[in-house]
Amino acid sequence: MTFLGDVSLLRLLQLTSPALPLGAFAYSQGLEYAAHAGWVKDEETAVDWLRGLLSGPLCHLDLPFLLRMHAAWTDDDEARVRELSVLLLAFRESAELEQEDLHLGHSLARVLVGHGFEPAQRFTRSDDATFAALHALAASHWGIPSRSALFGYAYSWSESQTGALSRLLPLGQLAIQRILSRLIDVIPSAVDAAEAVADDELGALAPSHSMASALHESQYCRLFRS
Question: I want to staple 123 with a disulfide (CB 3.0 to 4.6 A). Which of 23, 25, 29, 129 is the partner?
């Protein structure tokens, strides 16, 4: 088992902190439409929805791509990172999901430029700057092992989704924390599964998520950008 050093652990906490100025709070990844349509309406349906995404798209797309991008950055292979990033964007099933990924990627690139990451400068406006690519760059540069980077990414996603949920449904803070705890319980198995995904197994099918994201684009009244 690989343990994080003190500084690497603190860097991982910094990388996954909601205080990082990325604008993730403005996105719900289709959760807003799911709540609007009544697909997600209480604590149990929220857990079902989020755990489904964690064991689906996150487990079979984001995390395996992050793993490969971390290895590419460690090998100083930016061309491979860009190749993977373009492929990851191609898997996004709606315009909003693609725009969110690029927005977060550009935002993290600007943050990393402020920390002196020279490679990040080339991603501040590029059309292949996925969030996973820049998360992997930061993790590799800061000496965060790939498995720890996957845990951090999955936790950050879970916290962001439960944060959106708190603004969409009349759930108290204790309920939100229970939901987050139940997501945390499945993150280790999701990371294990992601590490076992072969190149020809990359991909995920989540029809309700795709529909919610696409339908959100024309939702009459909304709080979020996705």
Answer: 129
pTM of the entire predicted model: 0.96
4 falls within a domain: no
Asked if residue 17 belongs to a domain, the reply is no
Predicted confidence (pLDDT) per residue in 77-135, tens digit: 999 999 999 999 999 999 999 999 999 999 999 999 999 999 999 999 999 999 999 99
User: What is the domain-level CATH number for residue 115?
Assistant: 1.10.4190.10
Alpha-carbon distance of 134 to 142, in angstroms, equals 12
Report yes or no on 112 lying in a domain.
yes
Which residues, in sequence order, are CB contacts of 145 under 8 Å at separation 6+?
A: 2, 4, 8, 139
How many structural domains comprise the chain?
A: 1
CA atoms of 187 and 79, how far apart (whole Å): 30
